[in-house]
Amino acid sequence: MNIEQFWVFHCGYSKIPRWMIVEGGGRQEIKLPFLAALAVHPEHGPILIDAPFGTEGPSNVGEFLGGVLRKIGVVFKDEWAVIPRIERLGFRASEVNHVLMTHMHFDHTGGMKSLGHASFHINRDEWVAATSMSAFAARTKGYVVEDYRALTSRVEKLDLSGATIEKGVDVFGDGSIEAVPLPGHSAGHTGWRIRLADREIFYVGDAAFSVGHITQNQELGIFPKIAADSKKIAGQTLEKLRWWHRDHPDVEILTSHDVDLGQACMNGPLGVHVDAG
Ligand SMILES: [Zn+2]
Known about the structure:
Blueprint: E1 5-17, E2 29-41, E3 45-49, H1 65-72, E4 74-75, H2 82-88, E5 98-100, H3 106-109, E6 119-123, H4 124-131, H5 135-140, E7 155-158, E8 169-170, E9 177-181, E10 190-195, E11 200-203, H6 212-215, H7 222-227, H8 231-247, E12 252-254, H9 259-264, E13 270-274
Parallel strand pairs: 3-5, 5-6, 6-7, 11-12
Antiparallel strand pairs: 1-2, 1-4, 1-13, 2-3, 8-9, 9-10, 10-11
Bound molecules: zinc ion.
């Protein structure tokens, strides 16, 4: 089965110099976006990928990463919160029955509570990492437990232990969306491969920050480096993604913080693919 529409939108951005994201990227100021996506499934309806910020905005920022971001400042407007974004695309929040999480860092979880009725599909390794520490220790790792603690019964844990970048797990059993393990940025970081009628999209979350980290071999800047749970594993995953891209150059790669992608949806949600039929 094919996904009928695929939209990307931002829930805010931070102004930072480019070198923080791309090594040797220069001092030019960029808008680092906090992106999410909406895939429309013919039977399951609108499916959200990540829930960056709710109506309270980026007030959930963690101690460590959040401390950096707090200093820099996140630009946020009420209409950029995840629910108004979904509504702007013509759906009610109550229609969203499935949320796919790349990982559980605060800039991906702030809006989860506003979708409390949905099922959250999360790599089991990520759920364990995000829930096994004290709330304080979790914050130093970028996890804000308050965002999702009350949603435990809504979590569908995915077992990706046998999955690879080549062969992930078919989430709905119909070939439309595949969960792919991309660990390193966080313990159970997960990418989502989306099948559309005329193309495939690989939403890799924070496994790379800019798409160019994968497609142009750009090196990671300081920000993705300090944000990584394991620099070594994150580096191995990035290398696998580069190889995978060489073998599958037609698949469109999207990341959660790509500046060009953020720029393209600065004025509203970007339809990466909208099936006319
Ligand atoms: Zn992130």
